[in-house]
Specification:
Layout (H helix, E strand, L loop, with lengths): L1 E2 L2 H5 L9 H9 L1 E6 L4 E3 L7 E7 L2 E7 L3 E8 L4 E2 L13 E4 L3 E7 H10 L1 H35 L1
Antiparallel strand pairs: 1-2, 2-9, 3-8, 4-7, 4-9, 5-6, 5-8
Length: 156
């Protein structure tokens, strides 16, 4: 694994504008990782001990729908955050994630990041605000997909 620098994180849109000290703490909890196409990054119900910021490639989020099997609910790509369940007890993934193509990402140790947030409330607040924006965007995206899906089913 390759060490992640503060400068590398500062260049990412998700972290843009964060204080240098906050980025230093996050960089210390991060590594650069690569996954091949088809790699299962995490499974629904598994322990959420890490999260990722995608640098290249894309990952699908899926869930098991009774009677339908696995259904893709979102696609996470370059510059986007993969994984938010690491922040909320009981730290269990709510979805599955599979690489559609080779992926390079910054991988963060969730325990280390939570500890940094506990000792530095400004970092905790800043990171929480950014995560809330991610969640709000994904919720709206899911709503749009579900609406389109139900309208498509009504037309059949």
């Amino acid at each position: 694994m390759i060490k992640v620098t503060t400068q590398a994180l500062a260049a990412q849109p998700f972290f843009r504008g964060m204080a240098s000290g906050e980025l230093d703490a996050l960089a210390a909890a991060a590594s650069d990782v690569m996954f091949p196409a088809g790699h299962q990054v995490f499974e629904d119900g598994g322990h959420a001990a890490r999260f990722w910021l995608i640098q290249s490639g894309c990952v699908t989020l899926d869930m098991l729908v009774p009677g339908e099997g696995r259904v893709i609910i979102d696609t996470i790509g370059i510059g986007q955050l993969l994984g938010v369940s690491w922040l909320f007890p009981p730290y269990r993934w709510a979805f599955g994630a599979v690489c559609l193509e080779p992926v390079e990402a910054f991988e963060f140790d969730a325990v280390a990041v939570r500890e940094c947030c506990a000792t530095d409330p400004a970092l905790g607040f800043e990171l929480s605000q950014r995560l809330i924006r991610v969640l709000a965007t994904r919720l709206q995206s899911t709503r749009t997909r579900l609406t389109a899906r139900s309208q498509g089913a009504a037309l059949q």
